[in-house]
User: Fold this.
Amino acid sequence: MQTAAPYLLVLLVTTAVIHSGFAVYAWRKRATGARLFSLVNVSLAIWLGGYAGELIGADLTSKFLWALVEYVGIVTVPVLWFAYAQQMHDSRSRWLAPSRIGLLLVMPLTTLVILATTQWHGLHWKSFELSGPEPLLALRVTYGPWFWVHFAYSYLMLAIGTARFLSHVLRASDLYRGQAIVLVFASLFPWFINLIYLTGMISLPGLDPTPFAFSLSALALGWDIFRYRLLDPMPVARMRVLATMLEAVIVVDPQNRVVEANPAARAVLDPRARVGDGLAQALAHWPELLTFAGEPGEGRAEIALGKDGRMFEARRALLSDGPTRASGRLLVLREITESLQSARDLGRARDEALEASRLKTQLLAKVSHELRTPLGAILGYSEMLQSGAYGHLTERGQAATQRVIHSANYLARLVDDLLDQAQLEAGRIRLNPQAIDLRTQLEPLCAQIGEQARVAGLSFEHSISPDLPALVIVDGARLQQIVHNLLHNALKYTHAGGVRCALTWSQAPEPGLTITIRDTGVGIPAEAQAHIFEPFWQANHALTGRHSGYGLGLAIVAELARLMGGSVSVESEVEQGSQFTVWLPTGLAATDIVVPTEVREDAASH
Assistant:
């Protein structure tokens, strides 16, 4: 014992220094929740340092004073261990409140007071004396009743804290569970030694083996902290992120061993795999994935895993400590079974929609074409009847014939629009741009619309800007169709007031024609304005009180404007009217001819 005395003191002091270092290191990382871990190590350092002082004390009084210092650590370690375990188990536990921890420290403080005065009442130590061989004389004590109260309280705190810690360990990934359990048992080892020492199962004259057991705990704890940097902010954040990731993440070192894997990786790795096992063992059930993981460089592949054919996107990346030093590989797996199925369903739905659109276009073209012949016959015979070619008609007969002609013309316009829509959707319309005089092209149309406005009791006016060239290069027939559809639409939804059509010219950013048609009709609700250019879409008929129309006029305008390289827009307010603006790029056939402003007004009252 005499020859071992210096080594025992060195061991105690070294262990106390180690715990002090842990305390300082953890305190610097307190932002990551390491404050309680730091305080546990402070108490352990006080315990070990106090016991070293007790052993080297020269007399009974100095040894008793050092024992008081030692007891500061002895009575606080169980409470702090309990709080630290609670924090690991649930960081929001109510026992972590300062008031609760303060309440738990009442018993340790009471024990310190009773120990300091035990020579007068004997509640903690009935007696104490020097014992053991020179030079490490130790205190030999006889325990009083309060010591066993302190003993029961301390071990209760240790037992609850350890249970909480074990619960936290069991919730950890299977890959780390064995390592964590070893750490738990290393932490419990000193308390196990202390228990059998107090029961007399270990007899070392003048020595308490409990503090020496902490040297083993300190080494195990230090290895775990510095090996895995458990208190660093980035590893803490990294572990939390990995734990919540849906992708399976596996890290392999240069020796092809698994060094880290998140919980999602358990569905891929062999259930018996642990950190440190070879990748070949961990992926023994998935040879295709193992082959991909072992290929050089970085890569990506889609791999089927399992008998049910679940598909995964596998990515392989290289890890390095520097520009030339490789430190391992990263394997990331993301299940894409549902996304692939969704993509297939979407592709199938797209193909079905395209086929349905093609069939609809063919049907529209076929039906429209077949309707032209009988409609032509109906119109022809009706007009002949009206003219008296088959005899004189009564007034009622003339009225009936006029309704037939009106309905046939309506159907003829519908057939023409259906054919245009079918050809637009099929991409079969070809433009025929020519040099035209806009005034000559639009004059008959404006006269026709003016007459329709007069009959409806509305005003109509049209104007052409004076700087408009005499001749422009544009598809005149399609331009006339755009203006006709917009003017017809404006008349249909206007009950009072009138309609105005204006043509203006612009040179920038490129030569173009702007057609503006303004009415004082019912207007278009804001929620409907995004849909009015869609085929077969109509706004609420309650706005007009009419049920005419088939929702193709504006759709054809929009498609023709797009086909001609232009655009169409609308501004409208309910009960205030609407304004449609069409811009079309046009070529110049004669830029030096400018015609004075020409305004035509046709107004009539009902």
User: Anything to note?
Assistant: DSSP finds 17 helices and 16 strands in the chain. The domain at 5-233 is CATH 1.20.1070 (Rhopdopsin 7-helix transmembrane proteins).
